[in-house]
Write a structure and sequence with these properties.
The structure is a homodimer of 360-residue chains.
Chain A lengths: L5 E2 L9 H10 L18 H18 L6 E6 L2 H13 L5 E6 L2 H13 L1 E7 L20 E5 L1 E2 L4 E2 L11 E4 L16 E5 L10 E6 H4 L12 H6 L9 H17 L1 H21 L6 E2 L10 E5 L3 H13 L2 E2 L10 E4 L6 H17 L1
Chain lengths: 360, 360
Amino acid sequence: MPERVYNFFAGPATLPYDVVKEASKGVVNFSNMGMSIMEVSHRSAQFDSMFCETQKNMLNIMGLSEDEYAVLFLGGGASTQFCAVPFNFLKNGMTADYVVTGGWAKKAVKEAKFFGDVNIAASSEDANFSYIPKKFNLTPGAAYVHTTSNNTLVGTQMKNFPETGDVPMVCDMSSGFLSRKLDFSKFSLIYAGAQKNIGPAGVVAVIIRRSWADQANKEVPTMLSYATHLGKNSLFNTPPALPVYVVGLVMKWILEQGGLEAVETANVKKAGLLYSYMDDSNGFYRGTAEKDSRSLMNVTFRLPSEELEKKFIAEGAENDLIGLKGHRSVGGCRASIYNAMPYEGVEALVEFMKKFKAAN
Amino acid sequence: MPERVYNFFAGPATLPYDVVKEASKGVVNFSNMGMSIMEVSHRSAQFDSMFCETQKNMLNIMGLSEDEYAVLFLGGGASTQFCAVPFNFLKNGMTADYVVTGGWAKKAVKEAKFFGDVNIAASSEDANFSYIPKKFNLTPGAAYVHTTSNNTLVGTQMKNFPETGDVPMVCDMSSGFLSRKLDFSKFSLIYAGAQKNIGPAGVVAVIIRRSWADQANKEVPTMLSYATHLGKNSLFNTPPALPVYVVGLVMKWILEQGGLEAVETANVKKAGLLYSYMDDSNGFYRGTAEKDSRSLMNVTFRLPSEELEKKFIAEGAENDLIGLKGHRSVGGCRASIYNAMPYEGVEALVEFMKKFKAAN
């Protein structure tokens, strides 16, 4: 293996190489303290400074103010948020609206039903989630509306979010977080597992509107209560220090790129190259998502046969293009091209796809 | 600052330097895959191999069999286990016994009360938790008995656990995990935040008796249910990959030391050096824990005045002895001398203590 391959895994996923190299230094000696970021107390001044800077940078990138929003760095992954959101906000006698655009959204619904009534405001399950619904059957006075910004398994992305008026909107942004410009102020709570676009596994970023957090249920176990973490600026207990540190490095990297506008431009260019080639391949590479619902992050496609798909994935790996297998629940192929995937990586993939098509 | 200091932080805490250096390599290129351990899919063969080996090594070190016990690597810290244990095992109409030996045990009680009846089987709060109770008022047929093996804040350690007969025993071993030989088969569930003795923050190890897990409540949110994680060998969702990887390196390090017997011998020697000197200091350094309850991990002590304590902590730091401040809730001084603290570190501390005493 070369020192560095092109990594198309869906998550954990590729990170900016400069971030990887910098993290490796902090793993030995953080902030010139003579100890690793893994060894430093989360109550030390140096850790606190890094932690708060990371929170500030994330809000800056999103165009949100610290007065209005807080950033929490929690453990347990986005899957734990599936349960924390209704535990805190699905109050007795109320209904929560869920827009079901993929397998992860379905899991979120399952947890919400544990706590109260759920209305499926829209679903594309009838077509294997290959499109994003455009009409939403919203409940007046719902506790909240839950959405998913990008669907990793099926390669779709929500372009137009529901207009929820006074009803708070929640969004699972795990696989598309900070990949494009959005009006983030539309959301009252955003959560994102870090391991797609903003860092390593082991931390989930929760961006929460302070005024909504104040209205949460009081009878919630301590660690699942957003109020607990808000009250201690996300340092109620020991945070996942090293994952947060790497998220901090990624936030700096995004700012260095020129923020979300620049990041989105690069992502549009990368996805454009790949989708255009697929569309011009005379059906050899068939995208599985409806064109107007295509994801900038996860490009899902099929080949003429499952045998060819297997061969494609294996030969890709031999050419240092790793992780092209689709999710086991849907099969096929998938190239995840998150923020950190360089344009050259997509070029190399398209070159390989051309050769593979010619040879098969 | 030198490249490496002696780090007496209570957690996150010092790790073996060889582990730190090895981790730094894996952060750039894991298992010769051409990508970081932060970037590799948790569904890849290489990750799976590391993950399972870590589980096996941990059980080996504890002398437990894979048939009887499972190892889970979860997020959310030990604090989340305070709630998960009663959620799963404090059934309707039953009582859970809690032995309250410190601030963390109190927090565990608070969560359990959310789910059912709690009996305080013993408490040393009357004496600021400076000793470990020897008598336990156990409830016949209790759901479980909850204990804490080591109390980080007050520097005590449980030597003799209650005899619970048929009642399952649960233990929060966060701050003393794998620091000494124990009959681990006495416990039905052990949990330990990694950031004291076995790795970085961001992962909690849960060692659970399979037959007890089978008896858990069914109505538990997915991510808080032990059955969920057992059913997928702790890979139901993306695990905190990097923290687990470092835990794996620490397990190898413990085996290289000669296992728990060798680790305990080293810890007894280190703690002996420090406590002996304190006891011979004519009351200048006064240990706060009763002698028969003293911790091998966290050595807590006071100086003649708070002014001297402040000076001691500051001058210690100037001498590259970092993190000697006691927990903010109890004050005073504390030297955490976990497995990874070399004997030379304790020697350096004692030398400094001698000089400081002579000068003040």
